Amino acid sequence: xxxxxxxxxxxxxxxxxxxxxxxxxxxxxxxxxxxxxxxxxxxxxxxxxxxxxxxxxxxxxxxxxxxxxxxxxxxxxxx
Length: 79
Description:
globular, 5 strands, 35% strand, 5-stranded antiparallel beta sheet
């Protein structure tokens, strides 16, 4: 899946993440990804193993991978 443009100046990307199992996991990943420059919204769903990130510009996938790693989980790639 490619990133889609929502509102002007807004890009949404969905990533597959392994290792999430609860609300604490969702919060950890959301906190790390929220610190990336340009990120305006993060929604992690442990049950689906997906994280939806809304940002001002497309994010560098390596930056996303690093943030997910910092939270203790593994980025599989785009959903």
